[in-house]
Amino acid sequence: MLMRWLAVPAVLLAMAGSTLAAECPPLLSGVLPKLHAKESIDLCQRFAGKPLVVVNTASFCGFAPQFKGLEALYQRYKGQGLEVLGVPSNDFKQESGDGAETAKVCYVNYGVTFTMTEPQKVRGADAVHLFKALAQQSSAPKWNFYKYVVDRQGQVIANFSSLTKPDSPDFIEAVEKALASKP
Q: Nearest CA to 119 among 146, 92, 149?
């Protein structure tokens, strides 16, 4: 009798887990290492159902001052559920090979508080799944600080070149559209 009662919660947990997995958009499947930390980021667990800005970054790029604008955007909209994910990459030869140096640039020099990963490949066959999925829905990053706005269902609403600043009216409009999207 006791075994049956123990089996019921196990079955319910298994069903709940498969339901959660089914609700995760393909874009967010996977885990990435958090910048200069021992923990990893389960993309589905952290970002599913939330509006998201994904940007590939590089510490030594001329567009690095956009970190300030991205942080301001995050502070402005995080209360409404917006998440920002920065993914450093050396694909354009402007990122350090040292995660500690990348972290210093992001956290100390620019005061970033949004989620950052360790450097990743963002273009081509070796790109991490997230960027392959972003490219399938829109296009691969053409340079550092290429920005994607993703709605609550995991669909890319818009993508923006490095030249588009985080306070650009078109970019803000896309972010607000993502915020208004239904989960």
A: 92
User: Residue 55: which residues within 8 A CB-CB, separation 6 or more?
Assistant: 66, 70, 84, 85, 86, 87, 145, 146, 147, 148
Report the alpha-carbon distance of residue 119 to residue 115 in Å, rounded.
13
The full set of domains in the chain, from first to last, is 26-180 (3.40.30.10)
Q: Are 26 and 47 in contact (CB under 8 A)?
A: no
pLDDT (tens digit, 0 to 9) for every residue of the chain, 183 residues total?
A: 544 444 444 444 444 443 344 589 999 999 999 999 999 999 999 999 999 999 999 999 999 999 999 999 999 999 999 999 999 999 999 999 889 999 999 999 999 999 999 999 999 999 999 999 999 999 999 999 999 999 999 999 999 999 999 999 999 999 999 999 998
24, 44, 61, 106: which is the annotated catalytic residue? 61
24 classed as catalytic = no
| C-alpha–C-alpha distance, residues 63 and 162, integer Å | 7
> Would the pTM of this model clear 0.85, i.e. be above it?
yes
Structure tokens at 131: 């960027």
